[in-house]
Amino acid sequence: MTAELATATQPTNVLALDLGTTTGFALKQGEMPTLTGSVQFKNSRYEGGGMRFLRFRKWLETLNDRNGVDVVYFEEVRRHLGTDAAHVYGGLLAMLTAWCEVNRIPYQGVPVGTIKRHATGKGNANKGAMINAAKGYGFDPSDDNEADAICLLKLACEEIGASF
């Protein structure tokens, strides 16, 4: 499914995600204040490798149960600096897209450079520039993951005609 389907149903709850061990999120809930933050999905030394993905799915379910999600946008990463980061991203992406399919929630990936260019005017903006862009939108992100999600949310809202 793609976010194009969402425009026909007038989504009001838009979730933007920056997937990773520390996942940034921003959820626009109609006219309510936007919920933002970052969540750790790091395994403890006593957990199996799949636990981070199960915790991520449970987090998505809880977020949806409490707030409702009409459409999901995620940062689409094409290149990773490390093998572990690529594995984590791929696992989280698989869980996200499967969860969206099961729940019939449209989803759309947006390339990293597109998000950065939209927020800062530069497709290769650094973390500081993205944090400053999120602050310029009226938020105070705790880290670059949250800032990326906020910037993605703004782009997503503009794309589907939702308020930001």
The helix-and-strand class reads alpha/beta
The number of distinct structural domains comes to 1
Q: Assign the CATH superfamily.
A: Ribonuclease H-like superfamily/Ribonuclease H
Unreliable stretches (pLDDT < 50, length at least 5) are: none
* Overall spatial form: globular
**CATH topology type:** Nucleotidyltransferase, domain 5
How much strand? 15-25%
**Considering DSSP H and I runs of 4 or more, what fraction of the residues is helical?**
40-55%
Largest sheet: 5 strands, mixed
Multimerization state = single chain
Protein name: Holliday junction resolvasome RuvABC endonuclease subunit
InterPro entries: RNaseH-like_sf, RNaseH_sf
Overview of this structure, please?
InterPro entries: RNaseH-like_sf, RNaseH_sf. This is Holliday junction resolvasome RuvABC endonuclease subunit. The protein has five helices and five strands; from the N terminus they run βββαβαβααα. With 164 residues, it is α/β, with parallel strands linked by helices. It has a single domain (3-160), classed as Nucleotidyltransferase, domain 5 (2-Layer Sandwich), CATH 3.30.420.10. Strands 3-2-1-4-5 form a five-stranded mixed beta sheet. Helix 1 (51-67) packs across helix 2, helix 3 packs across helix 5 (144-160) and helix 4 (127-136) crosses helix 5. It starts with 12 loop residues before the first strand and ends with a helix. The mean pLDDT is 92.
Would you summarize the structure shown here?
This protein is of the alpha/beta class. It comes from Roseibium algicola.
